[in-house]
TrEMBL record:
Residues 610-632 are annotated as: Disordered. It comes from the Bacteria. Pfam families: AAA_16, DUF87. Residues 610-624 have a biased composition (Low complexity). Residues 65-378, 656-975 form the AAA+ ATPase domain. This is AAA ATPase. InterPro entries: AAA+_ATPase (IPR003593), AAA_16 (IPR041664), HerA_central (IPR002789), P-loop_NTPase (IPR027417), Sigma_54_int_dom_ATP-bd_1 (IPR025662), T4SS_component (IPR051162). It comes from Nitrosomonas mobilis.
């Protein structure tokens, strides 16, 4: 265990800190939280299937109906853990909206049940690591921020204007009409009242938000409430929940083809109930009906044996709908040695990092011995984690570490304080109230309307949490005017919390919210001030209140969003507890499940992080190009179809807006085929960008490459036409000043602030991830937190500095001085986190000056596609001077982000440019997550709407990630011999109408199987006009440094040359 501070790690392992790290059960209330211990290669088949179905939805042209994904497995297989991973994947990548619910056995209206938990799910933070914005507000933002639909003036008025109720209603009706009228066919079937309802969430008024949530839950509303919402008609008919669910799905589809994922967990809970078969069939009828909507993805999880019993009650057609395309996935319970090592290691590293010890564990699982994973092979994740928990508990009690094979037998254990052993009681099985609580939450639980009543409710429920902690905490709550003083002590009478809580519900307009914050700080004095609000706190970095909130946090305050769902849960717990308090084991259930403390808002208020849940729980020689007849300008001839009678193989130009992939081993001719297509597109006036890793694509900048003799006069003429029509520019990013043609990158694309809030946040997060990767950060633990801080800083600075390029020095200063705007966005900033982050950014700026140099041209996709001249631009970017792969990946990730920014602001129905990524497996690998991976995945989904075609070429098809294959409409597959590559291609090839997997290895240079929409053609590709050959690095610099030739000078030079 070289390099690991054993003594420090030993003390931490034997201390009562982060006791939850080996907790083996994922509870439903953890679904909404990031999972720091997720091991992505466990249940890889399920993750790949889910990713593919998500990508399929975003590719609307391939979507006829929704899908149902059935997960089966034994208890402890990890079904709920997977649901959590699916939710995080959907929301972190901004691919849609995720609703989670557990099966219930008593409700009669399943649509109402699904709707209730859908609104509850949407009322949770959309992406917890990025802030408190709920899914409903995220959906509302996506609706109103559609480019060139709603004017910025109307958006500002709705969000910040001091409007009367009539003015507010009129403005919302106007905006809703604008959205429907300007979106045309896309919004034709979207519910107008739903659009209006979501628009009200843009207005900063908690009472209005509460009324909207009643409407969305299909609850009865008073005439007064309806009038305040523009005389909206409440949805109280029996089939209204079903209609609203469909309306939500249609709206999500209309907005960026977003997915609506509905996860139905623990299906087995229905089985013990009376008439289980009838209720099961009724529930399945409802979800299969929902899954008819193209963007709906239903994920069903159940114990394998229970599903086998229940499915016999289903009609055969319904069973086929559930079990086919995709097939059911049986979750493998038994873990491998490598998986076990990762399961243990990732938790231990988080434990040590949390205490400020940089463990750098890598493959070590100290203090467990290296042989432990092998001894646990074949056990389930739950069994393994339970074993680890027991070992650590024993070490905490005795101060003796688990046996370690590397320990010197004579040295004895590492000395640590030895507490008096306490007998651990054997857990007694208790009746579960899970189902009763789950069903009870679906009922109507009106939230108090007055702020005083809300404050009293919060006080009672905070006191209730003492019961959930088994009275290991003494909770004292006193109401003082409009504030709560909360004092919590542990059993040793040591103060744990001393805070003052204030409900800050006023509008940010007119300074009323600012006054509430001021008064709260005054009343709190030396205590921790906690501001509570039922709608999002203002976060516009240009507003005074955002600055004040940041200063509030800098002074030790906390701000907590208590969602409508959380308030309803508090109301429900009051009456639920009254009904069941006298029943045996009810208190044990509260202590085991902690239904209130598990709420995100309660966890932030109490912040009892160390009190853990109960432990129970190359060129080819092709045929000459035929130009004897006038070609169709909308189609490209790229080869001939091989057979008894060969015929031209043509492809519609528009097809390349939906991306293409070129696969084949060395010498297969894949690059030549891609260049052949690009040359023809250039002739049609469509610009191209070539990302050149090897130096061969720079051949287009060499005069000699255009003078290669051709046997066919037609090809000679075509070559001359192409050269006259295009302008070739070579960039050499990373080259020193005065050499080549540097292309410098900003930290984030310029113009980020002009995008929608969702697009801005996503690009900022991608930029932060890229910076983190080049600084060696991992996507977990404290490193992930630092990446989140970076993302927020980038997002805020982009909004504050419109039109200016963001530099590393800007970031450094902003983070280093704990700017209040940053604190308002992320909460309290741990000095340990910010100090290391600033140090790492300083090291990055000093060690990679060429990457961030502000001299030379700045990366800008508009310039790369330059349409300002009469010639078509061919831009070649040589990565030769960037150095290491890490530098290349970082630079390319920034290129991808800028292309994404361009795509977002430049929609086009026609192909307006193509980009070739040679050796694409580096940017989109199967087994790792470089800085380029998520931006490229995102671009594959989004670039179509901008008419930007991506071309991915690789000679290592076995290393490419195929989970995004549905985003690529055309595949050219050349000679492939490697078994690994063939195995990975089989799932995709199996979807084609002709099985060609056995024929790939026998293909010669220039032979490909072209696959498009399931149709397979065996083609012989035409060769490109220019043959790509390796260009030396020093020559690339010369080619890049050549100045654009002046036509007059060239003319005079040619005259004198002939004399």
């Amino acid at each position: 265990m070289t390099g690991i501070p054993q003594k420090e790690c030993s003390k931490i392992f034997c201390a009562r800190v982060k006791e939850e790290i080996f907790h083996s059960i994922t509870h439903h209330n953890q679904i909404w939280q990031p999972d720091p211990y997720d091991v992505e290669n466990i249940h890889q088949e399920s993750r790949d299937c889910f990713a593919r179905l998500l990508n399929r939805i975003s590719n609307a042209e391939q979507t006829d109906s929704g899908r149902i994904m059935l997960l089966l497995g034994d208890s402890g297989a990890g079904k709920t853990h997977l649901m959590r991973a699916f939710r995080n994947q959907t929301h972190e990548k901004g691919l849609g909206y995720f609703a989670y619910m557990q099966m219930t056995s008593s409700v009669s209206n399943y649509a109402s049940y699904v709707l209730h938990y859908t609104i509850d799910s949407l009322d949770k933070p959309y992406c917890a690591i990025s802030g408190n914005m709920t899914g409903l507000v995220h959906l509302s933002n996506a609706l109103i921020e559609r480019r060139q639909v709603v004017s910025q003036n109307d958006i500002d008025q709705l969000r910040n204007g001091d409007l009367s109720r009539d003015e507010l209603n009129d403005l919302i009706h106007k905006i809703a009409d604008d959205i429907l009228n300007k979106q045309g066919e896309r919004f034709r079937s979207v519910d107008l009242d739903l659009i209006r309802a979501l628009l009200y969430l843009q207005h900063d008024e908690p009472a209005t938000h509460a009324r909207i949530r009643k409407y969305l839950r299909c609850e009865n509303m008073s005439e007064y409430d309806c009038k305040l919402l523009g005389n909206i008609t409440p949805r109280i008919q029996e089939d209204d929940p079903d209609r609203l669910l469909q309306a939500l799905a249609q709206l999500m589809r209309a907005i960026n083809t977003g997915a609506f994922v509905i996860c139905l967990d623990q299906l087995e809970d229905i089985y013990p109930a009376e008439d289980a078969g009838i209720k099961f069939r009724r529930a399945m009828e409802k979800i299969t009906k929902l899954a008819e909507i193209p963007n709906v993805l239903v994920v069903v999880a159940c114990l394998d044996d229970i599903y086998s019993l229940l499915k016999s009650t289903l009609p055969e057609t319904q069973k086929d709908r559930i079990e086919k395309d995709p097939d059911p996935i049986i979750l493998r319970v038994k873990r491998s040695e490598a998986e076990i090592r990762k399961l243990i290691g990732i938790r231990l590293q988080d434990l040590y990092d949390s205490q400020g010890v940089d463990s750098n564990l890598d493959d070590s699982i100290f203090p467990f011995g290296g042989e432990i994973p092998a001894s646990q092979v074949g056990k389930s994740t739950r069994q393994i984690l339970d074993w680890c928990r027991q070992q650590r508990e024993q070490s905490i009690l005795t101060g003796v570490l688990p046996p370690h094979p590397d320990q010197d037998p004579g040295s004895g254990p590492v000395p640590v304080p030895v507490p008096v052993p306490v007998p651990v009681p054997v857990p007694v099985p208790v009746p579960s109230f899970d189902q009763s609580w789950n069903d009870y939450l679906v009922g109507s639980h009106p939230v108090p309307e007055s702020e005083n009543e809300m404050l009293q409710l919060l006080g009672r429920m905070l006191g209730h949490c003492a019961t959930e902690f088994g009275h290991s905490l003494e909770c004292n709550i006193v109401q003082r005017e409009d504030f709560l003083d909360l004092d919590i002590r542990n059993t040793a009478e040591n103060p744990v919390i001393a805070s003052t809580i204030g409900l800050c519900q006023k509008s940010s307009r007119g300074g009323t919210l600012a006054k509430q914050i001021d008064k709260l700080q005054t009343m709190a004095g030396k205590r921790t001030a906690i501001a509570i609000r039922s709608v999002e706190f203002p976060d516009n970095p240009k507003s005074k209140i955002a600055l004040q909130l940041g200063e509030f946090i800098a002074n030790g305050g906390k701000k907590v969003l208590v969602s409508d769902a959380d308030w309803r849960t508090m109301v429900a717990m009051q009456s639920f507890r009254e009904q069941h308090a006298q029943q045996p084991h009810f208190t044990r259930w509260l202590q085991d499940k902690r239904p209130l403390h598990s709420l995100p808002s309660f966890q932030k208020i109490l912040d009892l992080t160390d009190i853990s849940p109960s432990p129970d729980g190359s060129g080819s020689q092709g045929d000459p190009i035929d130009i004897d007849k006038d070609p169709d300008p909308s189609r490209l001839k790229i080869g001939v179809i091989q057979g008894y009678q060969s015929s031209p193989y043509e492809v519609d130009i528009s097809q390349f807006a939906r991306h293409a992939a070129f696969l084949g081993g060395s010498g297969s001719g894949k690059t030549t085929l891609a260049l052949n297509i690009i040359e023809q597109l250039l002739l049609q006036g469509i610009p191209a960008i070539l990302l050149d890793r090897k130096g061969d694509l720079c051949s287009y900048a060499k005069d000699e490459a255009w003078r290669t003799p051709a046997l066919d006069p037609a090809r000679t003429q075509m070559c001359k036409t192409l050269r006259d029509k295009i302008e070739v520019i070579v960039y050499t990013p990373g080259s020193i000043e005065g050499q080549g043609r540097p292309l410098n990158i900003p930290i984030v694309p310029k113009g980020l602030e002009n995008l929608s809030s969702g697009e801005c946040e996503q690009l900022a997060n991608h930029a932060a991830f890229s910076l983190g990767r080049i600084m060696g950060y991992k996507d977990q633990g404290l490193d992930k937190t630092r990446i989140v801080i970076l993302g927020k800083a980038i997002s805020i600075l982009s909004q504050l500095n419109k039109g200016h390029t963001l530099t590393i020095n800007n970031l450094l200063d902003f983070i280093d001085k704990d700017d209040p705007l940053l604190l308002n966005a992320i909460g309290k900033l741990d000095p340990k986190l910010s100090k290391k982050l600033v140090q790492d950014l300083q090291t990055l700026a000093l060690g990679h000056k060429n990457l961030f140099s502000q001299s030379g041209e700045l990366l800008n996709t508009e310039n790369l596609f330059d349409r300002s001249s009469d010639k078509t631009r061919l831009t070649i970017i040589s990565t030769n001077n960037l150095g290491s792969n890490d530098n290349i990946l970082f630079w390319v990730s920034q290129l991808l982000l800028d292309i994404g920014r361009f795509a977002a602001k430049s929609p086009s129905e026609k192909l307006q440019g193509v980009i070739l990524f040679d050796e694409a497996d580096l940017y989109l690998p199967a087994q790792s997550k470089p800085a380029t991976k998520e931006p490229l995945e995102n671009l594959l989904r989004r670039a179509r709407s901008a008419g930007i075609g991506l071309m991915l070429a690789t000679q290592s098809p076995g290393d490419l990630d195929y989970r995004c294959r549905d985003q690529i409409s055309t595949w050219f597959i050349g000679r492939i011999k490697e078994k690994t590559a063939l195995d990975k291609l089989k799932p995709m090839l199996s979807e084609a109408k002709t099985d060609v997997s056995s024929k790939l290895a026998g293909q010669t240079t220039g032979e490909f199987y072209a696959i498009h929409n399931g149709e397979v053609s065996n083609i012989k590709a035409d060769r490109s006009l220019v043959q790509a050959e390796q260009v030396p690095a020093h020559e690339i610099l010369k080619l890049a440094g050549k100045k654009k030739e002046n036509p007059i000078s060239s003319f005079i030079h040619n005259i004198f040359a002939t004399l």
